């Protein structure tokens, strides 16, 4: 285990429950305002997250980073505890790549149809779906 002064806990929670819970030396997440890297003893922070990968360097495997596909949400850090609350999140090992690719294709078709029909609402929803699918595909490569 790493030096206790460098350890923090990372929890990622969705409405379905805890997706991730480990001790970590470093976490990197994509906030709305840019990427944020957090190590223990960081100043407290609350940040809204983008649809993007969260990378966690665990204390029990410092040569390896866990990758988690997080679909927005919020990150809070205080007292060496990182809490991420998101509508959905998946660890790389849990992503069904075939399903993610299908969702990508479906979103791309919907985007094309929405542009042809000039349907802004469908276009916005499909673009979010595409971002989620691409995020899942990208994170699945880190298994």
TrEMBL record:
Span of domain ATP synthase F1 complex delta/epsilon subunit N-terminal: 8-89
Any Pfam family hit: ATP-synt_DE_N
Secretion signal span: none
Keyword Cytoplasm: no
GO terms, molecular function: ATP binding; proton-transporting ATP synthase activity, rotational mechanism
Any single Gene Ontology cellular-component annotation: endomembrane system
Keywords: ATP synthesis, Cell membrane, CF(1), Hydrogen ion transport, Ion transport, Membrane, Transport
Location (main, coarse): membrane
Domain ATP synthase epsilon subunit C-terminal: 94-141
Subcellular location: Cell membrane; Endomembrane system
UniProt membrane topology term: Peripheral membrane protein
Function: Produces ATP from ADP in the presence of a proton gradient across the membrane.
Self-association state and partner proteins as the record states: F-type ATPases have 2 components, CF(1) - the catalytic core - and CF(0) - the membrane proton channel. CF(1) has five subunits: alpha(3), beta(3), gamma(1), delta(1), epsilon(1). CF(0) has three main subunits: a, b and c.
Family per similarity comment: Belongs to the ATPase epsilon chain family.
Protein name stated in the entry: ATP synthase epsilon chain
Native source organism of the sequence: Companilactobacillus versmoldensis DSM 14857 = KCTC 3814
């Amino acid at each position: 285990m790493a030096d206790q002064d460098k350890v923090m806990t990372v929890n990622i929670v969705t409405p379905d429950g805890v997706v991730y819970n480990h001790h970590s030396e470093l976490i990197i997440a994509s906030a709305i305002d840019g990427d944020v890297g957090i190590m223990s003893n960081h100043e407290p922070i609350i940040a809204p997250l983008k649809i993007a990968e969260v990378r966690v360097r665990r204390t029990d495997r410092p040569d390896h980073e866990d990758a988690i596909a997080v679909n927005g949400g919020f990150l809070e850090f205080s007292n060496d505890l990182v809490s991420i609350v998101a509508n959905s999140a998946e660890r790389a090992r849990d992503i069904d790549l075939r399903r993610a690719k299908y969702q990508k294709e479906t979103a791309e078709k919907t985007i094309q149809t929405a542009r042809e029909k000039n349907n802004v609402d469908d276009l916005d929803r499909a673009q979010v779906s595409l971002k989620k699918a691409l995020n899942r595909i990208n994170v699945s490569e880190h298994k």
